[in-house]
Amino acid sequence: QVQLVESGGGLVQAGGSLRLSCAASGRTFSSYAMGWFRQAPGKEREFVATIRWSEGSTYYADSVQGRFSISRDNAKNTVYLQMNSLKPEDTAVYYCAATPRAYYHGSYYSTVRPYDYWGQGTQVTVSS
């Protein structure tokens, strides 16, 4: 049974940084694609970034390109989201997601549809 556990959220001032972690368990994730999404109050869940675990290829939403970086640690079975130059509009609950169908390129994974597994989320609040 796949489990995804996010951590690292918190309150930060605009311009600051946070690093989110997603600890994955229950499978061998080398053939998976992993994603980060976020959801602000009253809004739909939106894509942030994705990574294919096997070769580490990444893809980002335009809104975070150049500020956020997704990576994975094979030994720890953990995916990270490094968030720099944070803005108040980055405030949201951030979710980690996983799918075993890592056959396609990055943009395919920029919607919620391909993902089978989701974490419980971690709150990120950016104050102005």
Offer a few descriptive terms.
single chain; 128 residues; mainly beta; 7-stranded mixed β-sheet; 4-stranded antiparallel β-sheet; 11 strands; 48% strand
Count the DSSP helices.
Answer: 0
Quick one: biggest sheet? 7 strands, mixed
Structural shape: globular
Q: Identify low-pLDDT runs.
A: none
Strand content: over 45%
Q: Give helix % range.
A: under 10%
Order of helices and strands: EEEEEEEEEEE
Secondary-structure blueprint:
Blueprint: E1 3-7, E2 10-13, E3 18-25, E4 33-39, E5 46-52, E6 58-60, E7 68-73, E8 78-83, E9 92-99, E10 117-118, E11 122-127
Short synopsis of the structure:
This protein has 128 residues and is an all-beta fold.
Written description of the protein model:
This protein has 128 residues and is mostly beta strands. Helices cover 0% and strands 48% of the residues. The protein is built from no helices and 11 strands. The mean pLDDT is 96.
